[in-house]
What does this fold into?
Amino acid sequence: MPTSSSAARLGPALFAVLVLLGTTGPLATDMYLPSFPAMQQEFASTASAVQLTLTTFLVGMALGQLVWGALSDRWGRTTPLRYGTLLFVLASVGAALAPSLELLTVARGVQGIGAAAGLVISKAIVADVTSGAQTARIFSILMTIGGVAPAVAPLMGAGVAEFGGWRAVLWVLGFAATLTALGSFFVVRETHPVPARSTGALFAPLGQVLRQRRFVGYMVLFSAAFAAMMSYIAASPFLYQNIMGFSPTGYALCFGINSLGLITSGIISARLATKVPLRRTIAVALLIVLTASLVMTALALAGFQSVLLAVVIFFMVAPIGMVMGNTTGLALNEVRKTSGSGSAALGCSQFLAGALVSPLVGLGGEQSPVAFAVTALVSLLLAVAAFGYTAESRQPQARR
It folds into this structure.
């Protein structure tokens, strides 16, 4: 367990770098999405070929977290983090200069691998220097801030592309990657001492964390809650515009309101973390989102397409901010000695779950919310089951 002195090491400068490490990857995921048509035109390619640049990035992010997490448990946090952020910088430059779509696709895959280092090791550092409710509080704050990135990234990317073209967006991402590298070299200090580091096979710590029953339960809870949120994000354009009849501006407004709700619930969760048992907060949030999901499914099956659906969706999405940070804190509290691999398992499962549900929400066509409602409901039922699986009746629940 961290001491009070080690917890004090999470000062303003380190916290700012951890925020940067945790948000640059999501920015790199979504910021260039509005540029897809321009990229398709420049390379005289198909939409699916351009989409592959996103797929390779996500795969790189998912698998890269497993590698960097294992390396950080073996070598400490700073060395893998510095190598990873430097790789992120080089791949970003390569993507911005890519003369062909094929090379851009490869560069984006490598970029995802590099960005994964900051995403996974930043969580491990928080677990190293905090404990208990403080860990959950910091994660709630970080994930609240990180939750803003996917919401604003497309808007930022559209603005940059309008003035400088789609390559300018990739140069901006390269600049952000450079900031993460500078922070990794000049601000981050080692938080994983030599005696605590893993030995033996490189991925042995990953096997250890996956044998921890409660950690696995929290991992499933985390990824299932994220899957429910991703089903909303993927379905949101046709939910609001095709089904409820909102204009593009109205859609943006509704998306912004839901994002604000998600952020607000994360802030509330952070404030409650030291006062209310974490599992109680999660239970209340899951009850709200599951109830809203059941209502949404019933309305969808009944063919209901009124704007009232927007209200139901808000209550399906906003409380998830009270689940993600608390669950991360609880999960990593279970595997403190191998928190790098634990963080990697959480991150990998998160991205794989998002990749799984995203195509499912469109199976019912663009005029029906049924596929979205069922996908979200199944995800949330799995989250509730995983939450029950993590119950520990024989240990005190005061701060768990």
Q: What stands out?
A: Confidence is low (pLDDT under 50) at residues 1-8, 394-399. Residues 18 and 311 are 34 Å apart (CA to CA). Residues 132-164 form the longest helix (33 residues). The chain has 16 helices and no strands.
